[in-house]
Amino acid sequence: MFCYRTRVKYADCTLGNHVYYARYLDLLEEARGELFRSIGEPFLKWQEQGVIFPVYEVHLRYREAARYDDELVIEVGLTRLRKAFLDFACRIVKADGAVVLEGETRHVCTSLDEKPMSIPPDLGGALQPHVRAGH
């Protein structure tokens, strides 16, 4: 499981001082981007080669509010890496261990004109160590 650390920014919070629900998707995107960067396969590299990974399904379960300046750990791991599909399990946890969010995002590998395509073999190989056992 890849872990990305961040702090809640003031701009991500509501007047009630909790992270606005849709901002969690931005946090998950940051973490996925860092996962790809950590294996030497940044999104921009693939985009320049005409390959993108749009989201086609999201399931999120909110467990506890995160608030301004909370330190968060975002855990991301692949649960499916097959043909044109990448599924990620994700979890956001506060520094004290409280679970903020659990969920899944599903992506499809496509060309820039959004035609599904197989995941490039070198990318698949680089991502393979991040596939969770049993999936």
Structure description:
The chain is of the alpha+beta class. It has a single domain (2-129), classed as Hotdog Thioesterase (Thiol Ester Dehydrase, Chain A). 21% of the residues lie in helices and 37% in strands. The chain contains three helices and seven strands; from the N terminus they run βααββββββα. The protein has helices spanning 23-38, 43-48, 121-127, and strands at residues 2-7, 51-52, 55-62, 71-82, 85-94, 99-108, 110-111. The strands form two sheets. The protein has a five-stranded antiparallel β-sheet, with helices on one face. Strand 5 and strand 6 (99-108) form a beta hairpin. The protein is elongated.
Q: Can you tell me the overall shape?
A: elongated
Largest sheet report:
5 strands, antiparallel
CATH third-level topology? Thiol Ester Dehydrase, Chain A
From the helix content, strand content and strand pairing, which structural class follows?
alpha+beta
Please compute the radius of gyration using only Cα atoms.
Answer: 15 Å
Number of strands: 7
Main CATH class = Alpha Beta
Number of helices: 3
The average pLDDT value, as a whole number, equals: 95
* Spatial arrangement of strands, main beta sheet: 1-4-5-6-3
